[in-house]
């Protein structure tokens, strides 16, 4: 089967670094689905606003190397334990296909880019190819009592995020709103560092909203330094 993108995703993340590890972890994180010219037809979206959530089928397009190992090291296990690739949501898979459930915010029906779907809570990088969109249906897709394997056994702790008044003033001067700064703090609280990086003196850089956010992490406290 040959497939091609029907759309591409637009988000604040220009690289993989810092993207939430799962959809929905940063609920208010905004993104857009911009269709390819041949799919910019409002009829293809007729009825979509009746759904609160959508499934996106997309490509891990930033992966530079083909997956060769049958096992991976999930971050939730600290990056030290191996489990089978098909028992994880690792981006390094035989086929680079991603699946995410996102919240439908609204549809911008008339724009220079055709109909644009605005969503929240996505875990996609800017420019990610999207191959299909399907509605999330509660009676078939929701399983609240389901087990989640090794994920149930490990608790994910958020970091405390500190942004100084000086840095906050700069962010506001660059056009970020208080709401967007709050979303940035929620993104950072998910601990963007690679699982093998624990140096409290290391300064990390994360592209976000056209800026480079530099931070350190020490004793579960993330501090934005510039």
CATH architecture of the largest domain: Beta Barrel
Major sheet strand order: 1-2-7-6-3-8
Portion of residues in beta strands equals: 25-35%
| Amino-to-carboxy terminus distance | 47 Å
Family: Belongs to the tRNA methyltransferase O family.
GO molecular function: methyltransferase activity
InterPro entries: TrmO-like_N (IPR023370), TrmO_C (IPR041369), UPF0066_cons_site (IPR023368), YaeB-like (IPR040372), YaeB-like_sf (IPR036413), YaeB_N_sf (IPR036414)
Keywords: Methyltransferase, S-adenosyl-L-methionine, Transferase
Describe this structure in words.
This protein folds into two domains: 7-141, YaeB-like (Elongation Factor Tu (Ef-tu), domain 3), CATH 2.40.30.70; 160-224, no CATH class. The mean pLDDT is 93. A hairpin with a 2-residue loop joins strand 10 (204-208) and strand 11. The termini are far apart. The strands form three sheets. It has a six-stranded antiparallel beta barrel with strand order 1-2-7-6-3-8. A four-stranded mixed sheet has the order 9-12-11-10. Strands 4-5 form a two-stranded antiparallel ribbon. The chain is built from three helices and twelve strands. The chain is mainly beta. The chain has helices at residues 138-141, 165-173, 178-189, and strands at 7-10, 30-35, 53-59, 71-72, 83-84, 97-108, 116-120, 129-135, 160-163, 204-208, 211-218, 221-224.
